[in-house]
Amino acid sequence: MAGKFEGKIALVTGGASGMGRATAIAFAQEGAKLMIADRDRAGGELTVNTIKDAGGQASFIETDVTISKQVEAMVTRTVEIYGSLDCAFNNAGIPGRMGLKVADCSEEDWARVLAINLTGVFLCMKFEIPQMLKQGRGSIVNNASVGALVGSPGAAPYVVSKHGVAGLTKSAALEYGKRGIRINAVCPGFIHTPMLDQALQGGGMSEKQMISFEPIGRIGKAEEVAKVVVFLCSEDASFVIGLAMPVDGGQVAQ
Ligand SMILES: NC(=O)c1ccc[n+]([C@@H]2O[C@H](COP(=O)([O-])OP(=O)(O)OC[C@H]3O[C@@H](n4cnc5c(N)ncnc54)[C@H](O)[C@@H]3O)[C@@H](O)[C@H]2O)c1
Fold first, then answer.
1. What are residue 16's phi and psi, to 5 degrees?
2. Which of 64, 113, 186, 209 has the fewest CB atoms within 10 Å, i.e. is most exposed?
3. CB distance 226 to ligand 1 below 6 Å
4. Distance 46 CA to ligand 1 centre (A)
5. Rounded (10°) angle between helices 156-176 and 107-114
6. pTM, to two decimals
7. Which tens digits make up the pLDDT trace of 217-245?
């Protein structure tokens, strides 16, 4: 496959599903070789096979982003297989239990959501950045949410975790910008993925209600976020750092 990422290596966490899978495929379509990391082996292997069937190169490593040793191994293995790490999309995340006010949230749910959505992104960056510093180049995109930019009743652990991702992204971007590493985040609105389908099945909000939050009048597609992630990782975004970019159909413009 030929494209903007010919000869480049991209790592995608949460690559077994939703936006992670769509972004891995979009990178591969631009010529990148992929490392797919996820705790879901079957889904990860399906992403790998989809990329290989289309003529691309991809590998899978089972990784829980909350376990430091596994995250370190994810980066080490990527470099062992492919020789470098050019782009990383730190995307693995969970919604946690929605619909509870702060005083009703359990300590367990709070800790789990922060461990995966925020500490998981921190751990990924902790091991990706030293490799990129060695190379003198690299680009990282973290998957935040519109929940990184505005509050949302009934979603405090998630919103806090995503505000944290935005802060982590901006701080790290300022720390490493002069050393060849660009770090940004995307902030998706409602996007059709298995996570969103689960939320719909859970009955907390109907599809009609979700659409009512979207000035564009519809829910987004995973591929629409993937294209923005690939753009932010590309040379076309060479002067863009520390951005937490809404990809949200206008939700936070209201
Ligand atoms: N779908 C939306 O509307 C929406 C909106 C804004 C932000 N997001 C964010 O986008 C990201 C991707 O979500 P999605 O909608 O594609 O969901 P998804 O459920 O389809 O995919 C999430 C992936 O993350 C993996 N994962 C979860 N915990 C993990 C862990 N501890 N270690 C490794 N992998 C783990 C899952 O196995 C899954 O493959 C998440 O961070 C989510 O918070 C989603």
1. -85, -5
2. 209
3. no
4. 16
5. 30
6. 0.98
7. 999 999 999 999 999 999 999 999 999 99
Q: What is the predicted pLDDT for the residue at 114? A: 98
Residue 149 in contact with ligand 1 by CB distance below 6 A: no
What is the identity of the amino acid at 59?
A: S
What atom of ligand 1 comes closest to residue 191's alpha carbon?
Answer: 3
Give me the pLDDT at residue 49, please.
98
pLDDT of residue 170: 98
Give the model's pLDDT for residue 204: 74
| Domains annotated on the chain, with CATH | 9-253 (3.40.50.720)
Does the C-beta of 143 come closer than 6 Å to ligand 1? yes
Ranges of the chain with pLDDT below 50: 1
Q: Looking at residue 199, what is its pLDDT? A: 84
How high is the pLDDT of residue 2? 66
Give the residue among 150, 88, 97 at the shortest CA–CA distance from 120.
88
Amino acid, single-letter form, for residue 9: I
Tell me the β-bridge partners of 90.
142
**Residue 17 Cβ < 6 Å to ligand 1:** yes
The set of catalytic residues is: 158
Q: Output the residue whose Cα is nearest ligand 1's atom 43.
A: 93
